[in-house]
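REQUEST
  id: r-88c1
  op: predict_structure
  target: LacI family DNA-binding transcriptional regulator
  payload:
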Amino acid sequence: MARIIDVAKHAGVSVASVSRVLSGLPGVSEDTRARVQAAAKALNYRPDLAARRLRSRRTDTIGLIVSDIRNPFFTEVSRAVEDMAYEHGQRVILCNADEDPEKEAFYLELMHNENVSGVILSPTLQLLSQFRASDYTFPVVLVDRCERSTEADAVVLDNVDAAYRLTEHLIERGHRRIAFLYGAGSATGQQRNEGYSLAMARAGLAAQASALRPVVADARDAALELLAGRQPPEALMASNGLLLLGVAEAVRELGLPCPERIAVAGFDDLPWVRLVDPGFTVIAQPTYDIGHAAIELLLQRIAQPSQAVRRVVLRGELIVRGSTAQRVTAPA
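RESPONSE
  id: r-88c1
  status: 200
  body:
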């Protein structure tokens, strides 16, 4: 295998000149640059990237730790991060924490050991409650989950506003008993519950919220229990795509016509929500934009470590479909 000294001898220049050319640095003549490039091609020279990174203390690697890779939201966010990382010559290490603080801690330690340039993190509620960016040896950008008081770069949806508008839509369509299923382990779920509860309170209605693991089966079981009660809800809301799928399974299992017997609404405009009859009303999150903004913030933080903390807050889009049609009260 050719070494940098072999390229220098072949081109008739110094090792320092070869290093400057291969690193894309100025300070060499066009003739020298052409000779070095020709020599490297002739010798099939490949730079030792590992050694270069060790010397520079930079790995050109970004860590992405998501809370649940099964959630399609994080799949789309991951795609945006990878797309932009590739454009900037960065590699991505993707880790799935499974909403488990121990796995999350393990992967954060891995990022430290790998000397990554920075990390994009969707934190568990436990970590977020004590999160300090200064505790880490690398820049961190929080994505999807962030408390109002957290001092860290972050990209989030306006969750309170989105859940408030979705609940308000159901109320305006004549629904009064509205049950809400939300993720128990995240700030996102709590913030959406806050928006739901606020809309219900302002309408003088009783809130009926259930905190669940973000698992389809759990949402299905919870929805079945609610719908079998003495006063079943007139509408069911879910805080993410996985819980919404569980609600859909319960409604189908019971054979309830939607929206005549039960209205359904939730978060995430996934392909399947458009295909079910009559189509589910949802808050569509700008997932790709969230991932894109997160890596933009991270690259800026890497380039300017002392810049002020920034938070990007995006707004969800209410997409109304047939599952939340106007409620018709049966005649007395």
